[in-house]
Amino acid sequence: MRAAFILSEIGLGLRRNLSMVISVVLVTFISLTFVGAAGLLQLQIGQMKGYWYDRVEIAVFLCVDNSTSPTCAAGPVTAEQRDAIRAMFGAENLSRYVSSVAYESQDDALRHFRDQFANSPIVDSVTADQLPESFRVSLVDAEKYEIIDEAFSSLPGVDVVSDQRELLERVFTVLNRASLGALLVAGIMTLCAVLLIATTIRLSAFSRRRETGIMRLVGASKAVIQLPFILEGVIAAVVGAVLASGTLWLSSSFLLTRLARQCPDTAFISAHQVLLLLPALILLAVLLAGASSLLTLQRYVKV
Amino acid sequence: MIRFDNVTKTYDPRSRPALDGVSLEVSRGEFVFLVGASGSGKCTFIRLVLKEDHASHGAVHVAGRNVATIPSWRVPRLRRGIGVVFQDFRLLPNKTVFANVAFAMQVIGKSRPMIRETVPDVLRTVGLEGKNNRMPHELSGGEQQRVAIARAIVNRPGILLADEPTGNLDPTTSMGIMRVLERVNQNGTTVVMATHDDDIVDTLRKRVVELRNGRVVRDEAQGVYEGAIAAAAL
Ligand SMILES: Nc1ncnc2c1ncn2[C@@H]1O[C@H](COP(=O)(O)OP(=O)(O)OP(=O)(O)O)[C@@H](O)[C@H]1O
Ligand SMILES: [Mg+2]
Predict the structure, then answer these.
(1) A1 contacts chain B (CB < 8 A)
(2) For position B54, which CATH number holds?
(3) Please, are residues A197 and A24 in contact by the beta-carbon 8 Å criterion?
(4) Structure-derived torsion over alpha carbons of residues A247, A249, A250, A251, reported in degrees to the nearest 10
(5) Which of A73, A128, A295, B42 falls 20 to 30 Å from A108 in CA-CA distance?
(6) Which residues lie across from B216 on neighbouring strands?
């Protein structure tokens, strides 16, 4: 009985306040879309960092069959060449710049490749002998890349020396800025949403002050008096969150398939990870709306 | 049923208290008129019984319980035991007579069959049979007040507080309302009615408590509106 009564009260409130309810829906929709976009960008950054970041700073790739650089003219790297290269790291003039060296075999490379591209279809078409073996070097001072480059790039058996850190850093900076921008917009829009929900609840409380006054007099409990207002805000916000989730889901799955086709050698987050983010958005909407309506009711609906 | 022990209520420390050392006991089943000039503290008395406000000094007991000791989440239960009627009826304009009375049962979680059974009974008690589906604006003032009384008693409270319930009604209609209140009282409900209506008080000859400047200046069984003191002054 009480549940049916509360439901009908909610319906009444939503209808009476329709234009405000629609604006709450739209504002939460926009704000949570930005929150979600920021979240997805962070996931994407995490995905890429997960394998690469601060693990490896410089890679000295060794020759494979199809290497084209002049130092690889003699074909794949030989065991002697590899040993000579390895020995170079220990040489007196270099060892003080190097903090650690790790050797990555072709099988290791394939394993890492599979981890990183777990969501990409190209995984199945790559075999170990297509991937170069490498020495992964981290430096005491990351700026000293030139020294390693000079020392190794002309050695026989070395294909190319690449400073992956710099490249990654650039990508991450761009992504981080984008996600920060999205977060900023999200913050402002969320503030708007909270204020708008508070205003809506206040108006709703005002237009129903007769009912709540009588409810108080005949001894309705605090929950029965306040729940319709709180649920009104929460329902509007959840509708906004569902719209935001739908938008994020559709646009991210569209974008991800296109990007994966255009840049097959980059790791992208999976649809699965996007789906995990959406319940968090809805929960956020419930918390925001619940908290702001509770605070408003404290002031405007006496119990 | 209601006991005031030396109760003082001060709204604004710069002016005199609205109630000033009031001690008063109303027993179960009594009918009491609360009279006195405007601003003498009648509304304040009612607000304190409902725990809408708290006494500045002294203790207010309702149904044997000091209301100051009732935690705020228990206040609704206190109010379920008290019906209230006002001068301005306070009906919900967009609900029918039936729905207005049913509202008081719905919000405290009474079942639909129980509501369907009780509401027509109560409407009959207040003399409104056959008007279930009228809207408040289709009723006379007297009929609207009957709806308000029906709503106040539908949950069978032990106490009915009426704040100038006949204030907006003509003498004949007022008498009709008084008959309804008497019937409610005969069914065992304690009735406290604040009023300015001397005709009614003089006709019914019930207990009269007179407040002046927040003090009880007269309390007599089967009293009249103008007390001995006021009469002597004339
Ligand atoms: N909420 C309030 N804040 C401040 N003062 C108040 C408040 N309510 C009542 N008062 C003051 O308390 C005194 C008693 O008021 P109360 O409403 O109890 O009188 P009353 O006897 O019901 O008057 P009336 O017959 O006009 O309804 C008045 O002087 C009034 O100004
Ligand atoms: Mg008054």
Answers:
(1) yes
(2) 3.40.50.300
(3) yes
(4) 80
(5) A73
(6) B211
Reduce the secondary structure of B35-75 to three states and give it as a string. ECCCCCCHHHHHHHHCCCCCCCEEEEEECCEEHHHCCHHHH
Same domain as B26, residue B137 = no
- Residue A108's φ and ψ, nearest 5 degrees, are -60, -45
Ligand 1 pocket by C-beta < 6 Å: which residues? B 11-12, 18, 36, 38-44
Domain around B138: 87-156
Nearest-Cα distance to chain A for B208, in Å, is 25
Surface-to-core class of residue B49, CB atoms within 10 Å of its CB (0-12 exposed, 13-18 middle, 19+ buried): buried
Ligand of minimum distance to the alpha carbon of B42: 1
Contacts of A13 (CB under 8 A, 6+ apart): A204, A208, A228, A229, A232
Closest CA to B49 of B78, B10, B92: B78
**Does residue B214 share a domain with residue B148?**
no
The 10s digit of each residue's pLDDT in A196-252 is: 889 888 888 888 889 999 999 999 998 888 888 899 899 999 999 999 999 999 998
Q: Are residues B125 and B189 in the same domain?
A: no
Q: Are residues B121 and B197 in the same domain?
A: no
Put simply, the answer to whether B108 touches A217 (Cβ < 8 Å) is no
- Cα A245 to its chain centre, rounded Å, is 14
CA distance B80 to chain A (A): 5
DSSP 8-state code for residue A133: P
Domain count, chain B: 2
CA of B156 from ligand 2 middle (Å) equals 24
User: Whole-prediction pTM value?
Assistant: 0.73
Q: Of B134, B156, B178, which closes a domain?
A: B156
Q: What is the ipTM of this complex?
A: 0.88
Higher pLDDT, A224 or A3: A224
- Same domain for B91 and B53: no
Same domain, B135 and B191: no
Task: Tell me if A285 sits within 8 A of A32, measured CB to CB.
Answer: yes
* Residue where a domain terminates, one of B107, B136, B156: B156
Q: Which of A296, A37, A47 is nearest to A187 (CA)?
A: A37
A contact test, residue of B77, B107, B147, B154 with most A CBs within 10 A: B107
Which residue, by CA, sits nearest to atom 3 of ligand 1?
A: B11
Q: Between chains, do B108 and A224 touch, taking CB under 8 Å as contact?
A: yes
What is the tens place of the pLDDT at every residue in B154-178? 999 999 999 999 998 999 999 999 9
Instruction: Give B210 Cα–ligand 2 centroid separation in angstroms.
Output: 13
Cβ–Cβ under 8 Å, residues B90 and A214: yes
Domain spans of chain A?
A: 2-52+169-300, 55-164
Domain co-membership, B64 together with B134: no
Residues of chain B positioned with their CB less than 8 A from the CB of A217: 50, 79, 84
- Using DSSP, state whether B22 is helix, strand or coil: strand
Residues B4 and B73 in one domain: yes
Topology adopted by domain A55-164: Alpha-Beta Plaits (3.30.70)
